[in-house]
């Protein structure tokens, strides 16, 4: 059985419209293996003279919280409040990791220093060759995976008891690095159950899942589920049922890469929640994004199908980015709105466009607007639109309707009717949205969109641009860009007429 994508899109939009701000966000506790990711970037243009290996000429480096830390950063991007439970080494890296998490907005009182092990470090060496996309060359790990001592475990659980009591959801993010022993996991799960708090587990790649018994849900990928159940990879419903039954879970969310996810709720039939086909650039962090979105959605009142659908969308956006990049809630909203309007391409009405523009603006995107007839598309138009797009992140193009062009230009215009013009303009890379207006001026669009930048061609002066006073009244800017001389629709028509004489 497959979820209904049409109804779920409308429901998801309404659900996200009610999502609280960060200051009123739900409290999520993340227990797990906290790591520090070290990225080393450089050029890899040659091989070593003494071995057949590439030489990385280092140019820059950065440190990013990883492992369970990444789930925390994902949750912050989803406007949640986050508390961390786990351990770090009693070393400089542990200090810096806690500092980075605290600076991002996490509570780190549940991170215990362990002098018997180093902070787990994942060093990623990334090379750029021949001006192509950066590629990870190899990784070097610093870690100790032995189970945490009883003394440290008691310190972790003492903090956990305080934090879980105030939470809306508990997420257990297990990388099998020693912090989440069976005893620790069971204490966490039983404490959350006592407070009626959902427990979401992203399990480690291990054969025995018994330490997760009693949790609310598990989110293994297909490979992890095969390892834990001993079943064939193509029998996903059977794997989900076995996990649900043996571990006494309420649900199982089995992630299936490009096939979406299989959702099994206790007492119901399994359903497949599809995902959008995307260009996969880097799968790093996709699983973390799934459980973060799942936890955030459930904390805010989503049902299981809604939560899994949102998780699929968030993970799909994650894999299109290089490295681990938290996906903002408004980016997810834009993706859902675009899915709702996918049959329209770039063409929108004002009512359809406004929610997408508002979501982009919340991401800090700059909205540019320009307008014109664009009757016979030529090189001057293309150069102009490139310059207009350079003024912002999103370019909205207002296009005169056939009626308004006839009123302005005369009864012989337009040469190309509205639908034809929209089809051609929609294929230009520089344009993000196309919207038709029938009035003599685009003032109605300007009031509805409130662009950050109003762009017009160089045959105008700023004071002659329609709407300049309105745009500047709320802090927007008006930019006049140069035009390519000798390129115009009128000139093209005159040349065509000349050939007939």
What does this structure look like?
The protein has 501 residues and is of the alpha/beta class. The protein has 2 domains: 5-17 and 25-340, UDP-N-acetylmuramoyl-L-alanine:D-glutamate ligase (3-Layer(aba) Sandwich); 342-500, Rossmann fold. Helix content is 38%, strand content 24%. The chain is built from 17 helices and 18 strands. A 9-stranded mixed beta sheet has the order 5-4-1-8-9-10-11-12-13, sandwiched between helices. Strand 17, helix 16 (468-473) and strand 18 form a beta-alpha-beta unit. The longest helix is centred in the middle third of the chain and has 16 residues, at 304-319. The model has no long low-confidence stretch (mean pLDDT 90).
Strand-helix topology:
Layout: H1 5-17, E1 27-32, E2 34-47, E3 54-67, H2 68-77, E4 81-89, H3 92-104, E5 107-114, E6 120-128, E7 135-142, H4 150-164, E8 169-173, H5 182-194, E9 199-202, E10 217-218, H6 222-229, H7 236-246, E11 251-255, E12 261-265, E13 271-273, H8 286-299, H9 304-319, H10 329-340, H11 350-362, E14 367-372, H12 379-389, E15 394-400, H13 402-409, H14 418-426, E16 433-437, H15 443-449, E17 453-457, H16 468-473, E18 477-481, H17 489-500
Parallel strand pairs: 1-4, 1-8, 2-6, 4-5, 8-9, 9-10, 10-11, 14-15, 14-17, 15-16, 17-18
Antiparallel strand pairs: 2-3, 6-7, 11-12, 12-13
Quote the average pLDDT: 90
User: How many E-type strands?
Assistant: 18
Task: Tell me the name of the CATH class of the largest domain.
Answer: Alpha Beta
How many structural domains does the protein architecture include? 2
Query: Could you say what the CATH architecture of the largest domain is?
Result: 3-Layer(aba) Sandwich
């Amino acid at each position: 059985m497959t979820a209904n994508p049409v109804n779920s899109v409308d429901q998801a939009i309404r659900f996200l419209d009610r999502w609280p701000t960060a200051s009123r966000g739900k409290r999520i506790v993340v227990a797990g293996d906290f790591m520090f990711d070290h990225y080393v970037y450089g050029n890899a243009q040659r091989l070593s003279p003494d071995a057949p290996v590439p030489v990385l000429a280092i140019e820059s480096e950065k440190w990013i919280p990883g492992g369970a830390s990444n789930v925390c950063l994902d949750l912050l991007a989803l406007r949640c409040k986050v508390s961390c439970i786990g351990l770090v080494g009693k070393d400089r890296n542990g200090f810096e990791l806690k500092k980075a998490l605290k600076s991002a907005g996490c509570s780190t009182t549940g991170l215990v220093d362990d002098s018997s092990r180093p902070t787990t470090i994942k060093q990623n060496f990334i090379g750029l060759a021949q001006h192509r996309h950066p590629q990870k060359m190899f990784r070097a790990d610093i870690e100790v995976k032995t189970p945490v001592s009883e003394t440290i475990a008691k310190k972790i659980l003492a903090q956990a008891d305080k934090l879980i009591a105030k939470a809306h959801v508990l997420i257990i993010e297990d990388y099998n690095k020693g912090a989440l022993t069976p005893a620790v996991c069971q204490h966490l799960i039983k404490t959350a159950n006592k407070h009626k708090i959902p427990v979401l587990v992203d399990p480690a790649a291990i054969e025995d899942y018994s330490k997760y018994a009693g949790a609310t849900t598990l989110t293994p990928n297909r490979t992890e589920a095969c390892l834990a159940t001993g079943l064939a990879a193509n029998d996903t419903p059977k794997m989900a049922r076995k996990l649900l039954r043996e571990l006494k879970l309420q649900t199982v969310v089995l992630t299936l890469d490009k096939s979406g996810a299989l959702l099994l709720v206790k007492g119901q039939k399994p359903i497949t929640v599809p995902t959008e086909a995307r260009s996969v650039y880097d799968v790093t962090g996709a699983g973390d994004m799934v459980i973060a979105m799942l936890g955030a959605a459930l904390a805010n009142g989503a049902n299981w199908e809604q939560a899994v659908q949102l998780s699929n969308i968030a993970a799909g956006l994650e894999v299109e980015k290089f490295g681990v990049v938290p996906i903002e809630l408004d980016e997810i909203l834009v993706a859902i709105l675009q899915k709702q309007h996918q049959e329209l391409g770039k063409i929108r009405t004002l009512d359809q466009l406004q929610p997408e523009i508002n979501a982009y603006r919340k991401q800090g995107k700059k909205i540019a607007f320009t307008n014109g007839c664009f009757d016979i598309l030529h090189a001057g138009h293309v150069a102009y639109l490139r310059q207009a797009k350079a003024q912002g992140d999103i370019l909205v193009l207002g296009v005169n309707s056939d009626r308004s062009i006839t009123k302005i230009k005369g009864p012989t215009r337009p040469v190309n009717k509205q639908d034809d013009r929209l089809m051609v303009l929609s294929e230009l890379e520089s344009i993000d949205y196309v919207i038709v207006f029938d009035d003599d001026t685009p003032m109605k669009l300007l009031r509805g969109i409130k662009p950050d930048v109003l762009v017009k061609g160089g045959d105008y002066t700023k004071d002659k641009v329609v709407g300049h006073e309105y745009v500047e009244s709320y802090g927007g800017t008006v930019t006049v860009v140069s035009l390519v001389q000798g390129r115009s629709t009128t000139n093209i028509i005159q040349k065509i007429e000349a050939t007939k004489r």
